[in-house]
Amino acid sequence: MRQTRLLPGKLPLPLLERLLNKYTSKKGGVIIGPGIGIDATVIKTTGDYLIAKTDPITFVAEDIGLYAIIINANDIAAMGGRPRWFLANILLPEKKTTYALVENVFSQLSKACKELSISFCGGHTEVTLGINRPIIIGQMLGEINKDDLITAGGAKAGDNIILTKGIAIEATSIIAREKEKMLLKRFSKRFIKRCKETIKNPGLSIYKEAIIVRKLGKVHAMHDPTEGGIATGLHELAIASGVGLLINKESIPVLQECKILCDYFGIDPLGVIASGALIIAVDQKDTENVIKGLRIKGIDASHIGNVTHKRKGIKIIEKGKIKRLSLFERDEITKVL
Q: Residues spanned by CATH 3.90.650.10 within the chain?
């Protein structure tokens, strides 16, 4: 077995695919098990399907409860489901944990759950040796009618790719929160506050658009990009669906705050953690109606590319030239934090 040291961030996709194929099970009522670009498990229960999801929150301490609920709920919503039950494994730093900190974390979790009608119904909490900030490992369970299920594996050649809101919403907020002192030397408090608030405006949750889009056209696949940014999210969707992609870089919406921070730190906005956006593969005849319908509901949406045959690869058009779309196995934000 190779002894190569892995860097922080996601596992390399080929390694992850091998491990999932070798060690995970699809028995016991599991309809959809783990896979590249498949971020939640689907379990057959009586009648509807149960969707199960787990994700840790490790980059931020401030508003960690809000992050934990939305990030986990997003993957349920991206499959067309309704998030229903949440369990939290809360790990707290040995030398920094106070009664006030614990109550604040629980309060955030409870508030975020109530806003999405989710039951915060269990978990585990402890003060943990060897960490310097709170960590929440969330477990979200949701439900969906079996006829409404959508995965990242359903994109078809000829589909169009739509992206909601813009890229690097989460990264913008994280960088502003974690590097505030440094940024105050260069930017105004007002600008930094605006960057922090991107988790609320335009927002990290993709639940609303995931529900709306189903009523607007024939949606074949959905995926919410997280670590590794929009570029890695697109790779994950293409791998899950067994297709190629041709993306137009100039059509990808980038928040102005994101562009400014990425330029300042010298990182690529295509490769920074991107929760808050939803990638949608839709029948090309429905593209205009989907975009128009989302915008009427106050959700920006853009046609950023097309689904092609797998043999054509995963490509991007940049300054009139077609080249391979970069894959960020290590999120660009790790260069900053």
A: 160-335
Distance CA 98, CA 104 (A): 10
Contact between 273 and 224 under an 8 Å Cβ cutoff? The reply is no
Report, in angstroms and rounded to the nearest whole number, the Rg of the chain calculated over CA atoms.
19
Alpha helices in the chain (DSSP H): 13-23, 64-77, 99-115, 169-178, 180-183, 189-196, 207-213, 229-241, 256-265, 287-296
In CATH, the number for domain 160-335 is: 3.90.650.10
> How is the beta sheet containing 279-282 ordered, strand by strand?
219-223, 279-282, 160-164, 301-308, 244-248, 314-318, 321-324
**Domain span(s) for CATH 3.30.1330.10 in the chain:** 29-148
pTM of the complete model: 0.87
Contact criterion met (CB below 8 Å) for 240 and 310: no
CB 197 within 8 A of CB 315: no
Domain 29-148 has CATH 3.40.50.280: no
Q: Which residues contact 204 (CB under 8 A, 6 or more apart)?
A: 66, 67, 70, 71, 74, 169, 170, 173, 275, 276
Q: What's residue 9's pLDDT? A: 57
pLDDT on residue 260: 96
- 263: confidence class by pLDDT, cuts 50, 70, 90: very high
Q: Distance (Å, rounded) from C-alpha 167 to C-alpha 22? A: 33
Closest by Cα among 241, 222, 243, 229 to 315: 243
CA-wise closest residue to 138 among 47, 207, 39: 39
Contact 228, 272 (CB under 8 A): no
